[in-house]
RNA sequence: GGUCCGGUGGCAGAGUGGUGAUGCAGCGGACUGCAAAUCCGCGAAUGUGGGUUCGAUUCCCGCCCGGACCUCCA
């Protein structure tokens, strides 16, 4: 297989990926709303999209990857009010954490990381177009999108307007003409952040910022739009409605890539169950690369159960990969990604299949094949794995005192004082969490347990 | 209720209309002072009942079970 195939939520089918402009593939990922630490679900989303971006960069000369930051929303406003600070002060920390946490997972930064607050003029411009087109109306200081004005509305997420209205679970605001109408712009009271607009001082609704930022940075039409599958409705349905109605004749994103939600130890992650896994805390328990591999162990369109046991297995898999690389010290990455890894990835990002391919390469490398080791490095580049040397992976952070202790065991072994030798080995493991592996001729290696 | 997805060895998890990947765990052996790692080998699975077919885990239908979404959650 030499061509990338992706499942497209819009068509509910897999199809060969055909870029609008092969000289510049344009992709957009719905980024974080920055009011708190990122959780493990955010991480899956970003890691999967990262693999897609890395793969696209192997296939096309240029890829423009845009991932927004939503830095104005009601949750942010609530926190700002609670603390008596500006929304900038609320979002600064979460933005920094987000970059740190995603960096720890070896995800590449986006080429452009636009912020909602820096795109208010674009937001206002789109809303203006929608009003002029008859797709939006003003009511009591709000501007609302009229879903019945868009015959395409609901098609993306596979629902009808009747269903939407019948199924509405929330109280319908009195100023809405129809229950399904959603807010594009809402008024701000003096104590809330706001921007001047033709409809008075206010702030954007939830969905409009993605329409504005993708338009500004990628154009009316672009190639790929990603996100968690919980965003299919209403967020993406509404983005499509806004953008396509504001720019008649456009189709917005060509291909929609949605990852499934994940479970935590078999249960849905939710605050009420108390199993909400904050990425930062997971990273304290396991190396970032192990967390990343764990997130790639299931296909992105399958439910993934993020368990402690799975995390440990992910670490052991990496141990095996690095052991294979250790035998071929300093090997450079091969120029091309071997097909046993590339083919599964080209088939709708089959990361478990790619990992199986990586294990097959590890078998060969362990058997002495240096080319296989070089190919492992190339595969690691596209998967975002094997980012360090085996030495750092196994022994990084082991301090000198522990190393000296291990060294003291050499003499004991040489004198065949195995009681002492074993005592030191136990000590290393129990007190310092370090495993010692003996090699030939009195050599040994240390690794973190 | 509506829409959609899934049920594969002990666990995790792919693929496939024709003797079911891969990893972890387990078992036997080699190696080792003993371990660890590595190597060789072993056992072990397609929820259930029908249908289509020469042949179904794969396609179709029913049933059972689990999950997701249905207005601010990635």
From TrEMBL:
Q: What class of enzyme is it?
A: ligase
- Molecular function terms in GO for this entry? ATP binding; cysteine-tRNA ligase activity; zinc ion binding
The name of this protein is Cysteine--tRNA ligase
Q: Which InterPro entries match?
A: Cys-tRNA-ligase (IPR015803), Cys-tRNA-synt_Ia_DALR (IPR015273), Cys-tRNA/MSH_ligase (IPR024909), Rossmann-like_a/b/a_fold (IPR014729), tRNA-synt_1_cat_dom (IPR032678), tRNAsynth_Ia_anticodon-bd (IPR009080)
Q: What is its EC number?
A: 6.1.1.16
Compartments in which it is found: Cytoplasm
User: Which CDD domains does the annotation name?
Assistant: CysRS_core (cd00672)
Assembly: Monomer.
Q: Where is this motif: 'HIGH' region?
A: 32-42
Give the record's GO biological process terms: cysteinyl-tRNA aminoacylation
* Cellular component annotations (GO), alphabetically ordered: cytosol
Q: Where does ATP bind?
A: 271
What reaction(s) does this enzyme catalyze?
tRNA(Cys) + L-cysteine + ATP = L-cysteinyl-tRNA(Cys) + AMP + diphosphate
Report the HAMAP family cross-referenced here: Cys_tRNA_synth (MF_00041)
- Record's SUPFAM superfamilies? Anticodon-binding domain of a subclass of class I aminoacyl-tRNA synthetases (SSF47323), Nucleotidylyl transferase (SSF52374)
Q: How cofactor binds (record note)?
A: Binds 1 zinc ion per subunit.
Residues at which Zn(2+) binds: 30, 210, 235, 239
By its UniProt entry, which PANTHER family does this protein fall under?
CYSTEINE--TRNA LIGASE, CYTOPLASMIC, CYSTEINYL-TRNA SYNTHETASE
What sequence ranges are listed for the domain Cysteinyl-tRNA synthetase class Ia DALR? 340-394
Instruction: Kindly state the positions of the motif 'KMSKS' region in this protein.
Output: 268-272
Q: Which family, according to UniProt?
A: Belongs to the class-I aminoacyl-tRNA synthetase family.
Which keywords are on file for this protein? Aminoacyl-tRNA synthetase, ATP-binding, Cytoplasm, Ligase, Metal-binding, Nucleotide-binding, Protein biosynthesis, Zinc
Which cofactors are named for this entry?
Answer: Zn(2+)
Stored SMART domains: DALR_2 (SM00840)
């Amino acid at each position: 297989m030499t061509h990338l195939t992706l499942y497209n939520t819009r068509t509910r089918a897999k199809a060969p990926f055909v870029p609008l402009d092969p000289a510049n593939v344009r992709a957009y990922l719905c980024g974080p709303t920055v009011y708190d630490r990122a959780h493990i679900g955010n991480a899956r989303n970003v890691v999967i999209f990262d693999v897609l971006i890395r793969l696209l960069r192997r296939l096309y000369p240029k890829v423009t990857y845009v991932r927004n930051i939503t830095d104005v929303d009601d949750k942010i406003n609530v926190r700002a009010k609670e603390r008596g600070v500006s929304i900038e002060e609320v979002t600064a920390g979460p933005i920094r954490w987000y970059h740190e946490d995603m960096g720890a997972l070896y995800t590449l930064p986006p080429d452009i990381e636009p912020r909602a607050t820096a795109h208010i003029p674009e937001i206002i411009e789109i809303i203006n177009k929608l009003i002029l087109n008859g797709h939006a109306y003003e009511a009591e200081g709000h501007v609302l999108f009229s879903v019945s004005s868009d015959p395409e509305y609901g098609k993306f997420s596979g629902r009808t307007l009747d269903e939407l209205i019948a199924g509405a679970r929330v109280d319908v605001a009195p100023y809405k003409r129809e229950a399904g109408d959603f807010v594009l712009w809402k008024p701000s009271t003096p104590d809330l952040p706001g921007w001047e607009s033709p409809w008075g001082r206010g702030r954007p609704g939830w969905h409009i910022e993605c329409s504005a930022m993708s338009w500004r940075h990628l154009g009316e039409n672009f190639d790929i739009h990603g996100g968690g599958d919980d965003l299919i409705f209403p967020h993406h349905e509404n983005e499509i409605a806004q953008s396509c109605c504001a720019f008649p004749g456009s189709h917005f994103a060509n291909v929609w890539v949605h990852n499934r939600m994940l479970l935590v130890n078999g249960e849905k992650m939710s605050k009420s169950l108390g199993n909400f896994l904050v990425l930062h805390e997971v990273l304290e328990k396991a190396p970032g690369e192990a967390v990343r591999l764990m997130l790639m162990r299931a296909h992105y369109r399958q439910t993934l159960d993020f368990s402690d046991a799975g995390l440990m297995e992910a670490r052991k898999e990496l141990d095996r990969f690095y052991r294979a690389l250790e035998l071929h010290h300093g090997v450079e990455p091969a120029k091309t990604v071997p097909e046993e890894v590339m083919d599964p990835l080209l088939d709708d990002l089959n990361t478990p299949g790619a990992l199986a391919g990586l294990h097959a390469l590890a078998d060969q490398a362990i058997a002495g094949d240096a080319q296989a080791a070089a190919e492992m490095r190339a595969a690691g580049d596209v998967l975002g794995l094997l980012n360090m040397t085996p030495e750092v992976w196994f022994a990084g952070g082991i301090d000198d005192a522990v190393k000296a202790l291990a060294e003291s065991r050499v003499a004991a072994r040489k004198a065949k004082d195995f009681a002492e030798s074993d005592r030191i080995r136990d000590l290393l493991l129990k007190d310092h969490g370090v495993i010692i592996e003996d090699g030939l001729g009195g050599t040994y290696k240390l690794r973190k347990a």
